[in-house]
């Protein structure tokens, strides 16, 4: 089956323009991400070094990639347009052994590994177990192996070097895209399921109003990245040259999905905290004068009240071992099990939210 789709010179121009637009958006979101991380450090006391490092690396990779794309487009359309070793611009862009093609694929592989690694780490942060993420880690390793294979065999291509779908290179690229797609789908599903599970458990607490927007952000980012990868994979399997355009567009999309999660979660948490403060800003000790104001013009006669206080002793060897707990009217009493469960849910909710700010 021969390659089909748009000509390679047209694909080079279209991909560079679209990548430039998305790159500009990612730069703006990078600035917003740095602001969001600084805001969280000042207001939440959260460590931000790791996330700032990841954000800077994503921007660096995207910048290097688009610079190589611009140079490659200039070489193919201007510098080597009449070169004898190439059959015009199409011959130049179809050569998989060109240095620009090798280096841009290497940068794309590094960007993919970094983005997928962040999603896997977030899964670990909310589950607090590496066993849950073992499948994602194995798939991430396969992404690294197939990515290295793509770069290596592209650089060593001698026969059919003008055919990226050749048996020496095509299977590696297909495996790389498939491994990346499944890594993202599984990791995002695990992350979303954990947030949904915790959200149901703490639906009556103050954290529930934050968890559901977090779930939507995670799903939005995962769907955006997964749909882009699926489209690129289908185009490559169908031997459609449109995958050149999609691969270049995915490069800044990886950065955008990372920035989007941090910015939207920070805004959500900030709005939630402001709402809580606005609700409780007028609260204070429940004094008699305040009770009178709340009651309005209604007055209630004061009546004598008698209080009988008894002593309660509770023994539960099965739950508390051989010990016992004794409570009085002015002493220690044991809480409601349902409230204890809600408390555990609140702690789990904090872990979920903390997984995005380590």
Mean pLDDT: 77
**What sort of overall outline do the alpha carbons produce when their principal axes are compared?**
elongated
How many distinct beta strands? 2
Count of DSSP H/I helices:
11
Provide the succession of SSEs.
HHHHHHHHHEHEH
Q: What percent of residues adopt helix (DSSP H or I)?
A: over 70%
Strand content: under 5%
Structural class determined from secondary elements: mainly alpha
Q: List unreliable stretches of 5+ residues.
A: 275-300, 310-354
State the distance separating the first and last CA atoms.
Answer: 49 Å
**Lateral strand order in the biggest sheet:** 1-2
Biggest sheet record: 2 strands, antiparallel
User: Gyration radius, to the nearest Å?
Assistant: 29 Å
Which helices and strands occur, and which strands form pairs?
Elements lengths: L7 H37 L4 H31 L8 H6 L5 H29 L6 H22 L14 H32 L6 H30 L4 H39 L7 H8 L16 E4 L1 H4 L3 E4 L9 H18 L4
Antiparallel strand pairs: 1-2
């Amino acid at each position: 089956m021969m390659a089909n789709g748009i000509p390679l010179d047209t694909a080079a121009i279209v991909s560079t323009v679209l990548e430039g637009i998305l790159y500009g958006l990612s730069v703006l979101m990078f600035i917003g991400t740095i602001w969001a991380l600084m805001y969280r450090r000042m207001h939440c006391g959260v460590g931000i070094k790791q996330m700032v490092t990841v954000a800077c690396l994503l921007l660096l990779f995207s910048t290097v990639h688009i610079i190589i794309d611009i140079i490659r487009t200039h070489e193919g359309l201007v510098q080597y347009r009449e070169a004898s070793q190439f059959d015009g611009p199409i011959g130049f862009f179809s050569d998989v052994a060109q240095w620009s093609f090798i280096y841009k694929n290497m940068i794309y592989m590094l960007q993919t590994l970094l983005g997928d690694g962040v999603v896997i780490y977030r899964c670990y942060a909310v589950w607090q177990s590496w066993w849950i993420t073992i499948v994602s880690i194995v798939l991430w390793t396969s992404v690294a192996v197939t990515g290295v294979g793509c770069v290596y065999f592209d650089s060593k291509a001698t026969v059919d070097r003008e055919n990226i779908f050749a048996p020496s290179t095509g299977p590696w690229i297909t495996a790389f895209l498939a491994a990346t797609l499944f890594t993202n789908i599984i990791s995002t599903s695990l992350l979303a399921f954990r947030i949904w599970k915790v959200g149901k458990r703490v639906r009556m607490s103050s954290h529930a109003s934050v968890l559901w927007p977090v779930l939507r952000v995670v799903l939005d980012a995962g769907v955006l990245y997964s749909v882009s990868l699926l489209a690129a994979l289908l185009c490559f399997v169908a031997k459609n040259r449109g995958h050149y355009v999609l691969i270049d567009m995915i490069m800044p999309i990886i950065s955008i999905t990372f920035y989007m999660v941090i910015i939207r979660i920070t805004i959500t948490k900030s709005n939630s905290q402001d709402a809580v403060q606005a609700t409780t800003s007028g609260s204070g000790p429940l004094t008699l004068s305040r009770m009178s104001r709340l009651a309005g013009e209604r007055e209630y006669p004061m009546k004598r009240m008698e209080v009988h206080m008894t002593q309660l002793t509770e023994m539960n060897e099965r739950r508390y071992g051989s010990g016992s707990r004794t409570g009085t009217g002015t002493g220690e009493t044991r809480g409601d099990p349902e409230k204890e469960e809600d408390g555990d849910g609140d702690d789990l909710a904090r872990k979920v939210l903390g997984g995005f700010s380590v």
